């Protein structure tokens, strides 16, 4: 016994009949689908209020079933799916849960269509099966539109959130923050108003684009880091909790490809502007090849030099002019010897080891430095002048 051909007109008639009957059953269908979704998906139970969920299911089924009765140009099922998806993104519902709800919707819808046709025109049930592909395709179209709308809304929210975080960090780092800003930032960034903070400023020497070379960890042990990217450097606000500056320096070391300046510890968000300025000052004392991580407390004399460049320039000229007037090779030998001598705390033996020469050579160079500058490395005040003048030469741009 063969199967008779089914015309498109018969399919449309059966689908219209079923849609008309289902429109009268919308409340119970919405009850069924809402319960099925909530019974099997904890995310919906936790993130979407029941009334909100039921209403969105009712509206979606109303537009979805109604689409069968309307010309394609008048159908509202896809815009409704997009509206619901945006709402679910705002509520934080996972996209997997949203898409799973469409699979359950297809099951409920198809079962309801079969029930109606079985009740009304059992003999035409085979006709209904010809429309199965179209029913599932329509629901797939809604799911695809919902996924696209969800992603767009999620991207919008993430962008605004990221902009808000960056804006608040900028405000806190710009200067001493007032009480209103501190309260707002603490709430938005989930940071305590009072707490132990440090600021880190990092930079790759000779370039402003850090690319993939810089790693920006969000946490180092128990410490939390919030990063602010700027054209020439990067700034991190570090909530230390019980950690100290030594802990921060140690944990940060694997992540620094260039220079990093670390501020002293401050006691609240209102002090981050001052901490940022001090971290930048520490960063300015870095010289030579990286990576280098510098704490301000360890570079205070050099920080004084870079914070007063005009005065420091006068000092270096007054103290080191005879040496600076030498040819480049001779000048660098003497300045390098002075630098190592100071670092080795006046030990000729240690200095000779670092300079790869005999200790008598070190003594000869030191005597020449003293003769040229008129300063003695046995007098504390002269040592201070020579050390600051040397920092000025190394850290300040040549004029």
UniProtKB/TrEMBL annotation:
The record's InterPro entries line, in alphabetical order, gives:
CdaR-like_regulators (IPR051448), CdaR_GGDEF (IPR041522), PucR_C-HTH_dom (IPR025736), PucR_C-HTH_sf (IPR042070), RsbRD_N_dom (IPR025751)
Presence of keyword DNA-binding: yes
**Keyword line:** DNA-binding
- Location of the CdaR GGDEF-like domain: 177-285
Boundaries of each PucR C-terminal helix-turn-helix domain copy?
334-392
Domain RsbT co-antagonist protein RsbRD N-terminal, residue spans: 27-164
Name recorded for this polypeptide: DNA-binding PucR family transcriptional regulator
| Species this protein is from | Streptosporangium becharense
